[in-house]
Amino acid sequence: MIALLVIAVASFVLFRLLGGAPRLRVRRNHPAQAAATKIQELTEYAGRLETTKKYTGAEKVYLQILKIDHRHVPTYTRLAALYTAQQNVTDAIECFQIATQLSPSGETFYNLGLAYYNNQNPMKAVASFEKAIMFEPSVPHYIGLAKAFNRLHDGDRVVSTLEQAVAFEPSPKVLWLLADAYTAAGRTEELPAIYERIKELDPRDKRLRTLRAAAKASGRHRPAKLDKTAS
């Protein structure tokens, strides 16, 4: 009996020294990961509903996502876009406002600015676009601000904003917007330099070539610079 006890104790000690029984890996539930997966699945489902123009169903799915995570900024943005597509600008603005509060950025303030602009509220659009530029200067943000100033009939600020856009990223598109702003402001003496820059960027610019052809056909006097740059 004593011998058996000694053997049992020795076996137990050896068992422990060798590390014991292998540990079972228990798969733990990660609530955050599960929620993220669920949100992704619901987002894809809502997208499919939107594609088939089932907007009411898509709205319900987005609201279900917000019950899972009431701070999910992408869902507020998608919901705002959904409301915009249905001409429900009031709710769209509210969603964009929440997005800017939860995640202030160039993108969220730009979206809010567009919503205000489309809702005929250029003053608030200006404020939002200015904040978008503060967070992230970009050509679309400058153009949005210029359009808002234009709706306010503030030609000087339209020009100054587009000049900033050109300084940030010169391109034929922005230069033509600035040329139009100069023309509207009566500052036609600035146009030859604009035409020169456009030609440097795109020697085959269609609008520049069309302008030259129209000037030739009309027989009117054209600035010497236009003759030089439009060839």
Tell me about this structure.
This protein has 231 residues and is mainly alpha-helical. The protein has a domain at 170-231. Helix content is 76%, strand content 0%. It contains 13 helices and no strands. It has helices at residues 2-17, 31-51, 55-68, 73-85, 89-102, 106-118, 122-135, 139-151, 155-168, 172-184, 191-201, 206-218, 224-229. Helix 7 (122-135) runs antiparallel to helix 8 (139-151). It is elongated. Mean pLDDT is 86; it is low at 1-9, 11-22 and 221-231.
Report the C-alpha radius of gyration, rounded.
Answer: 32 Å
Oligomer: single chain
Q: What is the arithmetic mean of pLDDT?
A: 86
- Secondary-structure element order, N to C: HHHHHHHHHHHHH
Distance between the termini: 113 Å
Number of helices: 13
Query: Which regions contain 5 or more consecutive residues with pLDDT less than 50?
Result: 1-9, 11-22, 221-231
Overall SS class = mainly alpha
